[in-house]
């Protein structure tokens, strides 16, 4: 039987397919319980801390609501309001937080920070997004796929469109490799060239064992038979100065109805981790438009179409993050 007590959740690469299966099943179970109004409070008496060096809506709220639902207490620290990394080393901060808390969530830049937090704190650390991974998002995406597509994961083809060298693209490669899925990173060669070769070779090694197919392509032929079209913003948090270049490179990879048609799958679903620039209803999209850059990575038509399951996906962030916390410290 799977037992994840005391484990950190830094990347799906640290987990077996059976362990990932267990987390998805637990998520489904916790979602059904919440819907039925059943209170478990399996985290009563636990304290967790959320460390955010980048902004967040879904991830932060998922951790907070999950803890409230299960009876745990939450402390939130952003980069401006703690000593970590500025007046106190990461090692010392981690040792202190490990004395206070039963678990630590971290969102920031380098993957080595979550690794060091886990090493020095002695308590489970959960990766809430780094520059190269976003593993809790992938659990939510897989749960959403299972809810909307009537096939086992290892028969599902996911095409990730756009910035193939970002955290979501890598996180998907890890997840698909582990679960034996078919993954295509569909984007321009200029960005594919910047992909981390070490990550790709690790992923390919896992894929050989699980039967996963991992491809990188700039040809629209790769869209055929996709079950899931996935995209993300073109310039991730901290990369805003790349916007002019990315608009130039990625406009041909904007998700449109014509792109969905090229899958030749009438039931294809559209997913997006969010937040999304599908219209000009944000300050950032408007400011960029004034400078002459259209940063919409998906059309409003696709975003609001029957194919789009983005709000089910967003809700599933909470249920899957709850499963990770319950499994590791519950
Ligand atoms: N998808 C996601 O991680 O959203 P937030 O940045 O709002 O947490
Ligand atoms: N690639 C995006 C994901 C946001 C959830 C970013 O890092 O900003």
UniProtKB/TrEMBL annotation:
One of its GO terms (cellular component) is cytoplasm. Keywords: Cytoplasm, Transferase. InterPro entries: Asp/Orn_carbamoyltranf_P-bd (IPR006132), Asp/Orn_carbamoylTrfase (IPR006130), Asp/Orn_carbamoylTrfase_sf (IPR036901), Asp_carbamoyltransf_Asp/Orn-bd (IPR006131), Orn/put_carbamltrans (IPR002292), OTCase_ArgI (IPR024904). Pfam families: OTCace, OTCace_N. L-ornithine binds at residues 167, 232, 236-237. Residues 155-327 form the Aspartate/ornithine carbamoyltransferase Asp/Orn-binding domain. Residues 7-147 form the Aspartate/ornithine carbamoyltransferase carbamoyl-P binding domain. It comes from the Bacteria. Its EC number is 2.1.3.3. Its main location: cytoplasm. Carbamoyl phosphate binds at residues 56-59, 83, 107, 134-137, 273-274, 317. It catalyses: carbamoyl phosphate + L-ornithine = L-citrulline + phosphate + H(+). It is found in: Cytoplasm. Reversibly catalyzes the transfer of the carbamoyl group from carbamoyl phosphate (CP) to the N(epsilon) atom of ornithine (ORN) to produce L-citrulline. Belongs to the aspartate/ornithine carbamoyltransferase superfamily. OTCase family. This is Ornithine carbamoyltransferase. It comes from Lentihominibacter hominis.
């Amino acid at each position: 039987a799977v037992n994840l007590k005391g484990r950190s959740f830094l990347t799906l690469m640290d987990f077996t397919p059976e362990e990932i299966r267990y987390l998805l099943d637990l998520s489904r179970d916790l979602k059904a319980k919440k819907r039925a109004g059943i209170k478990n409070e399996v985290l009563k008496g636990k304290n967790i801390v959320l460390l955010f060096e980048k902004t967040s809506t879904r991830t932060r709220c998922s951790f907070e609501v999950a803890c409230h639902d299960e009876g745990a207490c939450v402390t939130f620290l952003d980069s401006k309001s703690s000593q970590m990394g500025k007046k106190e080393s990461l090692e010392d901060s981690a040792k202190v937080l490990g004395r206070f808390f039963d678990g630590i969530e971290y969102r920031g830049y380098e993957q080595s920070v979550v690794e060091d937090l886990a090493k020095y704190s002695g308590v489970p650390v959960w990766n809430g997004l780094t520059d190269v991974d976003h593993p809790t998002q992938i659990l939510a995406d897989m749960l959403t796929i299972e809810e909307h597509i009537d096939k086992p994961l290892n028969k599902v083809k996911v095409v990730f469109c756009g910035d193939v060298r970002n955290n979501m693209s890598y996180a998907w490669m890890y997840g698909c490799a582990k679960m034996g899925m078919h993954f295509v990173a569909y984007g321009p060669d200029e960005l594919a060239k910047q992909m981390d070769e070490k990550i790709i070779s690790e992923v390919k090694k896992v894929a050989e064992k699980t039967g996963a197919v991992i491809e990188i392509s700039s040809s629209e032929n790769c869209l055929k038979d996709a079950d899931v079209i996935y995209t993300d913003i073109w310039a991730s948090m901290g990369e805003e100065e790349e916007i002019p270049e990315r608009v130039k490179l990625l406009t041909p990879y904007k998700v449109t109805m014509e792109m969905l048609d090229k899958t030749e799958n009438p039931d294809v679903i559209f997913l997006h981790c969010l937040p999304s620039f599908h219209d000009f209803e944000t300050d950032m999209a408007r400011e960029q438009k004034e400078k002459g850059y259209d940063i919409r990575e998906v059309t409003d038509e696709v975003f609001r179409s029957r194919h789009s399951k983005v709000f089910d996906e967003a809700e599933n962030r909470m249920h899957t993050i709850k499963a990770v916390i319950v499994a590791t410290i519950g």
